[in-house]
Design a protein that fits this description.
Its main location: membrane. This is Phosphate transport system ATP-binding protein. This protein has about 250 residues and is of the alpha/beta class. It has a domain of about 170 residues: P-loop containing nucleotide triphosphate hydrolases (Rossmann fold), CATH 3.40.50.300. Helix content is about 35%, strand content about 25%. A six-stranded mixed beta sheet has the order 6-7-8-3-9-10, sandwiched between helices. The chain has a four-stranded antiparallel beta sheet with strand order 2-1-4-5, with helices on one face. Helix 3 runs parallel beside helix 6. Bound molecules: adenosine-5'-triphosphate. Adenosine-5'-triphosphate binds next to strand 2 and helix 1.
Amino acid sequence: MENNVKFQVRDLDLYYGDFQALKKINMDIMKNQITAFIGPSGCGKSTFLKTINRMNDLIEGVRIDGTIHMDGVNIYKDIDVINLRSRVGMVFQQPNPFPMSIYDNVAYGPRIHGIKKKSQLDEIVEKSLRQAAIWEEVKDKLKKNAQAVSGGQQQRICIARTLAVGPEVILMDEPTSALDPISTLKIEDLAEELKDKYTIIIVTHNMQQASRISDKTAFFLHGEVVEYGETSQIFNNPKEQKTEDYITGRFG
Ligand SMILES: Nc1ncnc2c1ncn2[C@@H]1O[C@H](COP(=O)(O)OP(=O)(O)OP(=O)(O)O)[C@@H](O)[C@H]1O
């Protein structure tokens, strides 16, 4: 396997009971890039994203066939879920800080992983908040409840919480859809900065966002990947008529 491939997805099918939500997905997702998933509502973007850190395993009646390898390791067979989730972090559509202080939110994961020393936690909290481009805004109110700041700030705190456990991959499920335009741009800038160190996969309904920040784009329709390639190619010169129809707004 090429060593710049982070995830190798082969013939992935996912069923919710009788309903097939993903159909024969084949995709190589690259390290240190931003990969965007686009497509109309219900086409399977979030379902696919969640298979990457095995969030669907929690749902009753889900069946998954095919394989996903991360750095050559089968994530459904050869790695436990706890380990996988510490390496593959996730940021959700609605900022979801825990009802506790900003500091405790970011220290939460490291504490679960057994880090107790205050100086070490202080260091991780500051570093993570800095990386999430929110340190300057919250450094004087780390004891404040994380739910009592703006939505855009909450989302960056959630990103810091994800970074604090030292993941390699960040999955983002429509991370800016609940945010105002300025906060959205901050998260987009942040994603671009973070890709030097992380592999980022983002589900977005916002096509400008996908074309602004992603390196590769996958267009999903009815559980299938219609087209996957360089973002500039997908947006400027799509090979498939269905992709063109979607990105030009002819259906959606
Ligand atoms: N827990 C579930 N049980 C049964 N069906 C589900 C479940 N979650 C999703 N689905 C179905 O699977 C399909 C894909 O859903 P998914 O949420 O992955 O789509 P999406 O492309 O992310 O949509 P959106 O853009 O609206 O978030 C949809 O038809 C949805 O109704």
